[in-house]
Amino acid sequence: MATSLLHNFRLLHRKIASVLFIFFFIISITGLMLGWKSIFSSTIFENKSIMANKSSKKWLPLDSLDKLATQFVNQKLNTNFLRSDKVELKLSKGSIIFFYKNITAQIDGTSGSVILIEKKYGSLIQDIHDGAIMDELTNNKSGISKKIYSTVIGFTLLMLTITGFYLWYKPNTIKRKK
Fold first, then answer.
1. Partners of 97 in the beta sheet?
2. How many whole angstroms separate alpha carbon 8 and alpha carbon 19?
3. Which residue in 24, 72, 89, 161 has its CB near the most CB atoms, within 10 A?
């Protein structure tokens, strides 16, 4: 009984691993890249001479700062963004970071001067890693592709872990009994 179960687990383990090998390879590479994602960004513009005013009481209105940041990004990178996707306020630094697709623009809150523009690839790497890229490519807003991908990969990794442990543990117990 134990040897047939061992044999069946070995076959199951081998089949699962060989069928989904490419996905596990992609997940491991993108996981490493996410761990080191600061490497995957490039500075487009930096003005170190601007010292942001740390008092948020004198900040310009957020919509005005968004327009200034968007104009500057469009001008520098030859893009056509209408507005930012997300805003992050850095009260302790006196600056605001506007997020666009793979681009961030850091702006001084009081003057509206651009401090830094970076192009970042972390979100693209994340989308590949978790399967969200399939929803983007198919223009699917529900996120079902990501959920299916995550479920299949998570379940198979669990199965590989269980069968792998059994394939390691059972021969050791058989050897000890002999």
1. 88, 106
2. 16
3. 72
